[in-house]
Design brief:
It contains 14 helices and 9 strands. By secondary structure, it is of the alpha/beta class. It has 2 domains: 231 residues, no CATH class; 215 residues, Rossmann fold (3-Layer(aba) Sandwich). The strands form 3 sheets. A 4-stranded parallel sheet has the order 7-6-8-9, sandwiched between helices. The radius of gyration is 26 Å and the shape is elongated. GO terms for molecular function: alpha-(1->6)-fucosyltransferase activity.
């Protein structure tokens, strides 16, 4: 909080005085500051904003208040002055300080136009950066943020400059491009929510998707998971607009879904075809919610037993004489996707096809050992990477590091170090495998069995759609008595 005439050289909320002598507050980010800010800086700005807003209220009332009232999600603070407005009043330096500033391109920004378009009236920019190595939370936040932006009439952009997996374009086709351009980066604020240009990040999920968001958008007239339908639809809107895989992967997914559906086809005279039961098994560092399995994983036979139970239910009365349709059940298949390669070799799933076979994450015992030459010298091959036990964050951050570092080394990975080209190549393979697994299960399955403690499981529900997943029971959770929920915060 600064009352002097000279602004600090770091991002912070400041108290200013308008032409009528009234105290206002805004957020000062030096125009030449790096973009995006560090995750911790965005979180700190939101915390400081609350303190400064409270301080300005005290100035107006000439008394100190111990606590602020609990405001709704769309509360507008009359004492807040947007950055562009503060610049127009000469309270922030604005254009005088940002000459010759080259701003990096955002995903979704139109750079082909011959005539420069106007700055968007309102916008939201999603920063794809998180200390969490997984893709699931980032995708759920991205989709939900897009849906929220559409609801609020905001143009939507994505920043991938520090995304752990590399460039957005390596995985997805470009998102819908607005007919306006993003504002100067120092005008993008993490909060308050009524700022003209918002930044959405993992570090500010509690303010954007926290309790006030749920209070505003949950349906109070409904019970259980049905309260979440409006929030589910936000994520669904984002999925439909943004989950367009890059050409090569999209082509493979369509081909793979066609192959799996062909296996369930019966002759035309049969009225009912077989069904596809998708099974998503998440191991690694994601533990179940269910109390008895919280230190291990849900047993694999729970998945396979549930799949057989579902098949029996589907075909119990669908036979030609109203009885059990044995032929259709025989032509039904389980399709498995897992971050743990040992799941595919298990007794329960060794007969089941994988969701996709384009990129396989293998355990080390299934990788070929380098052959020795006649001279006794071992020929050089790339270092093998085994994924025993599933996806672990530490394993992900160590990709591309020299193998001289022992796998059991107790070191905290520095996630801020720029990755090597080899690390990015390996991360890209991991990300593409995950996305294609989701695409095949979410789009090709009639029912999906998974554990709702996994974000990938909740993403699959969104991909299936509300009617198919929730109303028709296509989304089957076997991790305790928990319902679908969106962004974790």
């Amino acid at each position: 909080m600064v009352g002097e005439s000279e602004l600090p050289d770091f991002p912070t909320p400041v108290v200013v005085t308008d032409k009528r002598g009234r105290a206002k507050w805004t957020v000062s980010i030096p125009p030449d500051h790096e973009f995006p800010l560090q995750q911790e800086q965005y979180a700190e700005i939101c915390m400081q904003n609350m303190e400064v807003a409270k301080h300005v209220v005290d100035l107006h009332s000439h008394m100190h208040r111990e606590s602020m009232a609990h405001y709704g999600y769309y509360h507008v603070d009359p004492n807040f002055m947007d950055v562009a407005e503060a610049e127009a009043h000469g309270l922030l330096p604005g254009t005088k300080a940002k000459t010759n500033m080259k701003q990096q391109q955002l995903v979704g920004e139109n750079v082909d136009g011959l005539i420069e378009s106007e700055v968007c009236e309102k916008s939201m920019t999603f920063v794809m950066e998180t200390h969490d190595a997984g893709l699931g939370k980032t995708l759920m936040m991205l989709w939900t943020a897009y849906g929220l932006a559409q609801k609020e009439g905001r143009s939507f952009f994505v920043d991938d400059s520090r995304w752990a997996y590399g460039a957005y374009s390596k995985f997805f086709k470009p998102p819908p491009i607005p007919n306006c351009r993003p504002p100067p980066r120092h005008e993008m604020l993490p909060c308050p929510h009524h700022a003209r240009h918002l930044i959405a990040t993992a570090s500010t999920a509690t303010s954007m998707f926290g309790g006030a968001f749920n209070d505003n958008y949950e349906d109070p007239r409904k019970m259980e998971v049905y309260r979440q339908k409006p929030i589910f639809e936000f994520a669904r809107l984002g999925y439909e607009a943004l989950f367009q895989l890059s050409n090569e992967d999209a082509t493979y997914v369509e081909k793979r879904i066609g192959e799996l559906q062909f296996q369930t086809m019966l002759p035309e005279e049969e009225k009912v075809n077989g069904t596809i039961i998708g099974v998503h098994v998440r191991h690694g560092d994601r533990r179940p919610y269910e109390f008895q399995y919280r230190d291990s994983y849900v047993p694999l036979d729970r998945y396979s037993d549930k799949a057989r139970e579902l098949m029996h239910q589907v075909f119990n009365n669908s036979g030609p004489d109203g009885g059990h349709n044995t032929l259709a059940e025989i032509h039904s298949i389980m399709v498995v996707a897992s971050d743990d390669p040992e799941v595919y070799e298990s007794e329960e799933f060794s007969h089941a096809p994988r969701a996709q076979e384009q990129i396989r994450l293998a355990a080390k015992q299934h990788l070929e050992t380098p052959k020795q030459a006649a001279t006794g010298m071992r020929s050089f091959v790339d270092e093998s990477v085994g994924w025993e036990g599933g996806f672990f964050a530490g394993m992900f951050w160590s990709l591309g590091k020299p193998s001289s570092v022992p796998a059991t080394a107790a070191e905290t990975p520095d996630t801020k170090l720029p990755p090597t080209q080899e690390a990015l190549r390996l991360r890209e393979l991991v990300g593409r495998a995950y996305l294609m697994d989701l695409a095949v299960l979410g789009r090709g399955s009639d029912k999906v069995i998974c554990t709702v403690s996994s974000m990938g499981c909740k993403l699959l529900a969104v991909m299936m759609g509300w009617e198919k997943a929730i109303e028709r029971g296509g989304f089957v959770n076997i991790d305790g008595d928990f319902d679908w929920r969106g962004v974790s915060w």
